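Worked example 2:
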Amino acid sequence: MSFLTRLWRSITGRAYLAGRDLEGNRFYEYPGTSNDPRRTKRVAKYLGVRFEDPAEAALRAKRLAVQWRMWLSHTRSSPPTIEELQADVARQERVLANVALLQERERERKAHIAAPKTSPADTSPSEPAPAPVQTDEGAFRYASTAAQEQETNRDSQPEPTPVYSDEPQAWSPRAVRRRGS
């Protein structure tokens, strides 16, 4: 904003229209009372809301676009454009579509897990009994495939993480090392 524009607005004291949002609300900026041009008064005039109903105005203020709320609170220096607001609405629709897709996938995954598994491998007869195997010492030992599977599974499973205690421990400070001596 040029110096002459700021000077004219401070002399006339009139508000100027900063912009509109997609719902038709208008946003005005009044010149500041101090010499600081950054601290102007910013106001939103809601479409179809009367001054007698502050509750409805408060609800409309919560539904404002984030970009306009940032502008009203002086977090943002320039008002948002219509194109920026439309791009944000399109982004919100994409996010909602992605959320619906993820929820559907999660529902399908839970249904797949909850469904009873009836595969032909489950209906086969149980494994034959392990045959006795003679060890070097001459004693017989049964070769258990289940025991071997457990050993391989145990090796493939990650080690449990150690549980750290939240109990306080004694503090033992180290001796201070002095430089040069």
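Strands lie at 16-20, 26-30, 41-45, 132-134, 140-142. Residues 105 and 111 are 10 Å apart (CA to CA).
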